[in-house]
Amino acid sequence: MSPSANFSPDADTSRISISALYTGHVWFRHGLSLPELYSFKGKLSYGALAPVNALIRAVAGADIETFLLERHLIIDELLSRAIEQQGVCQVIEIAAGMSPRGACFMRKYAHSLRYIEADLPEMAARKRRYLSQHGLLSDQHQVAECNILAQEGADSLSVLFSSLDSSKPVLVITEGLVNYFELPVITDFWKRLADNLVTFPKGIYLTEIYPDLQEHPLYRWVQFAQKVVGLLTRGGYPLHYRDDQEIEVGFAGCGFAEIKVHNPASYYDSLPLKKLEIPSAVRIVEAAV
Ligand SMILES: C[S@@+](CC[C@H](N)C(=O)[O-])C[C@H]1O[C@@H](n2cnc3c(N)ncnc32)[C@H](O)[C@@H]1O
Fold first, then answer.
1. Closest residue (by CA) to atom 14 of ligand 1?
2. What is the spatial distance between Cα 36 and Cα 89, in angstroms, rounded to a whole number?
3. Residue 115, pLDDT above cutoff 80
4. Which of 183, 216, 217, 270 has a Cα at 20 to 30 A from 124?
5. What Pfam families is this protein classified in (predicted)?
6. Which domains are assigned to the chain?
């Protein structure tokens, strides 16, 4: 499938934005968010999925939320390390939705960090409204419009990157985005991303991926959860790559030079994650150009 088959640069993917209200409420419920980002619509969407989550949890011992928390806390951890150990001082979080990460990291690293949260125009306007109502935006912390499908123009990656200082390291995050797109579409985005990152002295990308782990003991339930997310967002939710090695090869093919695939199980002792009896369904990718 060519990138243009289902997702032309002007395809409207705003149907996916409902999922940001859902995940925003998950962060809130687990004490990871700020009161300023509470949304009643988020609570409603969370309630709508609660019975399905309870069913998956009863059968599989883990649910959609378990893997959301794994990805979120590990991305936070990797971002902290990049800031403290690798001199990252500029962050772009694409598809930030209602995530508290920008506000939380700006509280912690106010004097050394520039943070740009980006999303489709409607979601960006919502986030800007929430943050500015509480005085949380500044020259150092901004919200911008970005559409990962846009090859050029105001919402494109190159315009987003043009506001950064190209003499300093940069880190880009996408969380909860890549599995909404077919592989050729998301790899087209990753290639453009790598092309932009390479113009900085250091360029790192963090994302999570739900791989197609066909040998997973609860693969049927992974597929069920996949269908539920697809229904909520009125589209597909394709799983990408069969294992960690395929992920590494895939990212190398997009222009990334150093690729680490993090398995949540290796963080059980250092982060407050639920220890699962089954393998995790998610991986966190740290890729540098
Ligand atoms: C599951 S939410 C993730 C929100 C946030 N990162 C989190 O984890 O809570 C998916 C996000 O992708 C955004 N999105 C959908 N299509 C997009 C596109 N073409 N370009 C950029 N963002 C997009 C949605 O608006 C939404 O905020």
1. 95
2. 25
3. yes
4. 183
5. LCM
6. 13-288 (3.40.50.150)
Q: What is the number of the ligand 1 atom nearest to the C-alpha of 150?
A: 19
What residue's CA is closest to ligand 1, atom 18?
147
Q: Which residue has the higher pLDDT, 277 or 172?
A: 172
* pLDDT tens-digit map of 192-241: 999 999 999 999 999 999 999 999 888 888 888 888 888 888 888 999 99
**Residue 7: its pLDDT value, please?**
63
Q: Give the pocket of ligand 1 (CB within 6 Å).
A: 13, 16-17, 19-20, 23-24, 94-97, 99, 119-120, 123, 146-149, 175-177
Residue with token string 């001082």: 89
- The pLDDT tens digits for 249-258 are 999 999 999 9
**Alpha helices of the chain — where are they, by DSSP H?**
3-6, 18-29, 40-60, 64-86, 101-108, 121-133, 157-162, 183-197, 219-233, 244-253
In this structure, which residue's CA is closest to atom 25 in ligand 1? 17
What spacing in Å lies between the alpha carbon of 252 and ligand 1's midpoint? 24
CA of 97 to the centre of ligand 1 (A): 6
Which residue has a Cα nearest atom 23 of ligand 1? 95
User: What is the structure's pLDDT at 97?
Assistant: 97
